[in-house]
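Our consortium's second objective concerns turning raw sequence data into structural hypotheses that experimental partners can test. To show how far this objective has progressed, the report includes one record in full. It was chosen at random from the queue rather than selected for favorable results. The single chain below, 386 residues long, was entered without modification.
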Amino acid sequence: MHTLPSHESLVAELRDLRRRGLPGLRHCTRDALREAAVAAGLCTGPDDEQTGIEELLGAAVRRLAGGHPVRDDDSCDPLARAAAHSFGIFAARRGVPGTDRRKAAAGVYGVTTERFRKSQEREVIDELAAAVLAVAREAGTRQTDVVTESTAPSAPPGHAAPAAAGFPPRRPSRPGVRPAAAPAGRITVRVSPIEEVRGVDVLVSSENTYLEMSKTFRPTVSGALRRAAAVRDAAGEIVDDVLARELGVWLRTHGRTGMPVRPGTVVATSSGALAAQGVRRIHHAAIATPVGDGDRYHVSPAMLGEAVRRSFELARHESEFLSLPMSSICFPLLGSGRGGLPVETVARRMVHAVREELRRDPSWSVLLVTPEESHARVLRAASSAP
């Protein structure tokens, strides 16, 4: 187990970070935050240090909220709301100036910014530091438990998405550790662009085997999610290409920049601005292999079931490891666009794979989306078939 920093050192660094904001993290002293992020398994080196620390702070704020999504309303614990405002954790608030973040946090308690600075802000930072330590400590305990409980051999490199994504090997899921979202165990088909889906924990994107997302102007699932998750300034200009940036960190960390991963690999990123829609994670399923000059792709039908299985496996692991009470996942028609697979084939394969996963763990609910009504009819037919 990694050594954890002291509470006092975390408090000192969080005070500096509160003033500078997350974009200024690279200019802050962050030794204690780095130690905690490493202990939590959220970063492994300089390339993913900033992302790992931000993930750690997000997990700590969720812990203050009792493990629930942090919402800016009275249904959420005020301490968690104030912490989210203070550090710019809320979607589209990452780059807000420190004075405005403090004002928003003071508003949670209905006090002036000066009163908040002298009183409640100290409690918020103290409690956030304690939550950071708790997240790191619990993650370290789970990693130790994994080693003692399981000696199963690891999958081939690049094939097991959870390990490749920087998480320790997954413990078998335990019934009852996560509250199920209604309607559990059910497949729902909806006519909708995936980027407009709300209140679903995980959205799945299809990517090529180089994990290079589509351009934001492309009419693809990958391009739409990249566009929707990006953080923008007041003028609407993209200031943080969240999904592409985090995939780039994963590729650099795992030495795969410019090289393909094994088809079927699934890598997780945060949801960026889509967090405002209740989305917690984006899973990037590498199923499309470029052919020729790269304008065409080959997708093996067998990869559809593999991508579904690995996305469920990664979601269960993240739900436990990141203490996120996730219970819902949304799939588009993987491989039916530029992948060239017939919609009927995709629907049949995906529905079969989803049913298999729900038999193993019926606490999950699944949403299948497509913007085309004709494709939705095919999905409904596949879902209702025996």
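The partners drew two points from this record. Strands lie at 187-191, 202-208, 231-232, 238-240, 266-270, 281-291, 296-298, 328-331, 365-370. The chain has a mean pLDDT of 83. Both points have been shared with the crystallography group to help prioritize constructs.
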